[in-house]
Amino acid sequence: MNDLYRKIVEDVFAEPELFYQKLKEVPERAMTINTLKADEKTILDLCDLEYAKTDTEGSYTFKDEKVGSSIAYTLGLIYPQEKSAAKTILDLSICEPKLIVDLCAAPGGKTIDIAIKTQDKALIIANEVDKTRSKALLSNIEKTGISNIIITQTTSSDLAKKICGIADIVIVDAPCSGMGMARKYPSILDDLRAGDIKRCVNDQKMILDDAYKILKKDGLLIYSTCTYTKEENEDQIHDLIARHSDLKIIRKPQLLSFIDGSEGQFSCVLKKEKETDIIEPKLMKESDDKIIKSFIDEQLDIKDYYLYKVGDDHYLSLMPLYDLSDHVLRYGIHIGKVKGKDVIPVHSFYRANILKGHYKKVIDLNDVQYHDFIVGLEIKVDALDGYNLVTYRGYQLGFGKAVKGTLKNKYPKGLRIHN
Ligand SMILES: C[S@@+](CC[C@H](N)C(=O)[O-])C[C@H]1O[C@@H](n2cnc3c(N)ncnc32)[C@H](O)[C@@H]1O
Q1: Which of 93, 364, 376, 392, by CA, is between 20 and 30 Å from 257?
Q2: For the chain, which domains are there?
Q3: Pocket of ligand 1 from Cβ distances under 6 Å
Q4: What is the pLDDT of residue 401?
């Protein structure tokens, strides 16, 4: 541990010795239960990981190393994340948000938490500046089946030029010096530098000012970091209120650390009390593509939906979506592309929770077929020719193309499980 890390611990914590002792413990791995797919009890009954409930707020930890190949994870019923991180998203019974903007969203933990808390009823704009990390965000959103979402890959400042004064909730889970991740990534103990902290403070300040612009009057700003420095936590909140005096703290700053048996997490919730400039983006122009419409008719029993086309890609949504022009990675549910007179669908079309119960052609796999499917094998099926949703125990897994009793496996290569 370098001198800077040690000094910050000794400034912030009343019992540094206890902190050092707890630093040696192996971090617990926790999971969020995806109640967009089923109720908690049903998911826990199916969960094939050894788990334990750790507190009354419903936090579950698990020991298994093989989470990636577990059935619960493969079906998107659970999302693994730090126990502390799951506590940032407050109880949303105090408001019924219509628009949520998550400015620093990858790999997706907070977006997933808030989508679950709001039961995917609000529109979420989930943004991530980093290209590689935005791919992980896309994949995690696809896995958990969140549907009312626009995923963007840009800076918070770019977004704050397109949307102003209209979001009910803005989440800033900020880039930070990461001291609270030291049990998971011990290199931070030696790598922490004053210059990095300063750079993070400046970035956080800029992102928080963007968040303020995006938020509407009476909207909530959720700020969090996974670090311990006062500059990035309490001082950042203090300075933010000094710049925007109408912001009122409605959930006091809370700092969790190894001492509490969790990884580091600072969080605070503020309410904006003033109306500022409003920019509401125009809505996306709907597409009238006949080939896509007839594919949807063949696949789904829904009649009311919005259809969008961006480049060669087609998207479906059950709510109207804003046109955020450049930098959008996904509008609602990605259907796929048209090639000639055919539609080439994609995996995420078959994972969307809000389409559950609406697919016309469904193959529910037995245990043997499930294990064959997730490694990429073809399966003998008694099914109608064409694209079919593939489920396991009733949960959306992926899709395949049935041709004369054989299901051509369309489970994405990157997700296939190799033992
Ligand atoms: C702590 S991580 C977010 C974790 C995520 N909220 C979760 O729960 O999984 C912070 C993220 O902010 C991104 N970031 C950094 N600067 C940004 C900016 N100016 N605008 C938007 N995102 C930014 C980083 O690439 C990083 O992925």
Answers
A1: 93
A2: 84-272 (3.40.50.150), 282-358 (no CATH), 361-419 (2.30.130.60)
A3: 85, 103-110, 127-130, 133, 155-156, 173, 175, 203, 207
A4: 97
